[in-house]
Amino acid sequence: MTETQSPEAGAGDRLVRVGAIVFFVGALATLVTVAPLFLGTEPFPPVAYAVCMLMGAGFAIAAAGVLRSIAAQRRQARAATVPQ
């Protein structure tokens, strides 16, 4: 972590990274579950389609990380402009 980053911003960055990983796992699951439909084989059970929901969960986690980073940067900017 560099000098210009606050601990809150680092936590937001971690949420974005975790959200991206969860999103890509969900995207991969979506590709795997849709493939049998194009290949003409038996579709996967409904539980496999539930794993596809990780795309939405990953997007939400990443969005929360972005909002947390924004809030930390605003607090840091506000603290820098307050005369002491």
UniProtKB/TrEMBL annotation:
Transmembrane segments: 21-41, 47-67
Upper lineage: Bacteria, Bacillati, Actinomycetota, Actinomycetes, Kitasatosporales
Keywords: Membrane, Transmembrane, Transmembrane helix
Domain of life from the UniProt record: Bacteria
Protein name: Integral membrane protein
